[in-house]
Amino acid sequence: MRWRGVPLDVLVAASSVGLDLLTTWHVGDTAYLPAEMNIPMALLAGLPMGLVRRWPVPVTLYLAVLLFVTDQIGSFTSNTAQILICVAIGVAGYRSGWRATLLAVIPTIAATAFNMADPGISITSSMWMYSVLLPVFPAMLGAYLRSSAERLEERDVTPDALLAAGGVAITVLSTWTTWHSGPQPVWVAGLLAVVGGLSLGIARRFPGLVFLLQGVLLVSADIYLNDAVNTCVILTLIAIGVFAMRVGSWAWMTVAYAAGCLLTAIAVVADDTEVTPFRVGVLMTLVATPIAIGRYLGARRSAAAAERLRAEESAKAALAQVRADQLAERERIARDVHDIVAHHVGAMVLRASAARYTAPDGPVADALSDIRETGHQVLQDLRDLLDLLRDPDKQPDLLANPADVVRESAERMAAAGLVVDLDLDPATDHAPLIARASAARIVQEGLTNVLKHAGPGTRVRVAVTPSKEGLTVEIKNGRPPTAIERLPSSGRGLAGMRERVRAVGGTLSAGPDGDGGWLLAASLPARLTPGSAA
Questions:
Q1: How buried is residue 311: exposed, middle or buried, by Cβ count under 10 Å (0-12/13-18/19+)?
Q2: Cβ atoms of 83 and 187 closer than 8 Å
Q3: What does the pLDDT look like over 309-358, one tens digit per residue?
Q4: Radius of gyration of the chain measured on its C-alpha atoms
Q5: C-alpha of 62 from chain center
Q6: What residues pair up with 471 in beta bridges, in sequence order?
Q7: What gap in Å lies between CA 98 and CA 281, rounded to an integer?
Q8: CB atoms within 10 A of CB 26
Q9: Does the CA dihedral 417-422-428-431 come out positive or negative?
Q10: 3-state secondary structure 246-284
Q11: What are 509's strand-pairing partners?
Q12: In the chain, what is the straight-line distance between the N-terminal and C-terminal CA atoms, in Å?
């Protein structure tokens, strides 16, 4: 990525050197420079343009100094420097802020004024006006393009670069031999040729503006530089073709076609030209050809855009169908879970409630009450889970404080026969809610596993403490006091805890402690890790 765009910089530098060699090829010795210095001067003027995309303001300042020096020593490289400095200041307006651009504009105005003034002649107000407008216009154009760049829909600049390069190649190669034949300075003809070619680079973005500019250049060439008229006609036809591709209104197409016919007639019809129906038909066909090509390319582009839109809509519809299928499957699972689990748990609660009213007070009554309350809580949790299955976007309600859930779990397991030693650090209240809620669920499942696998009478220590990473949960039980009959187990309790801890980016370990007991330890981070499935 560091060297991306280097071929373009090399091409710009080589083109700039070639431009100076084209403008100075016929020049022999001057008062200060021999003819052998033409190549070194071309390198001095053109090679810095390879850096114009990265450092446009320093390159502009360098060209301003070079323009002043070459003008003072009578070098024809000043014509090239005057052309290149307008390109550089346009790039500065596009890539730099207004302060930096202003820093480049002021020296350019001064150097342009000295270049336009003949020796011994004072600079007039009219000359100052041209000296100011010549650098300010490309700077404003570059700033305008920078401000509108974010609104462009098409980011690929390859077609624009090809249009600009082709335009400059057409204008320079077909007109450079006539730059010395007109009454205007060489650099004026060269600058108009370069600007006319470069303007095609923005034709796709601003087709109307470029078409208007090419029309103005065509009329100017017909008046002041007749040898360049054919080249301007070619650029105008290219501009009208791009206009037809980008503008879909047939009313504007009609206006552009009429303007193209008028401009082409101005260029090819002289005072002594005989106007015949055949020649009129040829001229109208000539202008209609790029419009037809442009409309065809525009229709292809619109069809491709419509196809992309249909593909995107199809992808969205497929995703919506997949989501609908998932929601239907969730609904079916929720219905099955409700029919199977809720029925049995509800029956268990009802029978425990009935037995509680007929049983005398004592441990049996307390156990029945605990079964009834636990069943009610299970049914409530089951309802919340089913609601979440039916609507995945719904956020589950946390009705209880996680610390209260931990204490309630310890009390319930103590009532069921475990000897629970709870160490709940008050500092854990400052931990994130998701870590505290996960810790509460781990404590619930861990104590349930101790009761199922170790049995009543087992001593268990529960510790929930803060750590540097977040929260640490430790559940350690001793050796079972007697042999017990293990309760039925699905084996999913430990796997579920591992999934819960992994979901928040933590770690969990479980295994024998070496003393006949069991140790469960979990580390919960304070923040979700980037790879966790929250």
A1: exposed
A2: yes
A3: 888 888 888 888 888 877 777 677 766 766 667 667 777 777 777 776 66
A4: 42
A5: 35
A6: 466, 524
A7: 50
A8: 10
A9: negative
A10: HCCCHHHHHHHHHHHHHHHHHHHCCCCCCCCHHHHHHHH
A11: 521
A12: 35
Half-sphere exposure of residue 499: CA atoms within 13 angstroms, side-chain side: 6
- Its sign, for the CA torsion 221, 233, 193, 208, is positive
Query: From CA 83, how far away is CA 68, in angstroms rounded?
Result: 13
Cβ atoms 447, 413 nearer than 8 A: yes
Q: CA-CA distance, 214 to 202, in Å (whole number)?
A: 12
pLDDT in tens, 227-286: 778 888 888 888 888 888 888 788 888 888 888 888 888 877 776 777 778 878 888 888
Closest-CA residue to 282 (of 297, 295, 265)? 265
CA atoms of 322 and 324, how far apart (whole Å):
5
Q: Which one-letter DSSP state was computed for residue 338?
A: I
Report the distance separating Cα 534 and Cα 532, nearest Å. 6
pTM for this structure? 0.46
DSSP string, 431-469: S-HHHHHHHHHHHHHHHHHHHHHT-TT-EEEEEEEE-SS
In 3-state terms, what secondary structure has residue 471?
strand
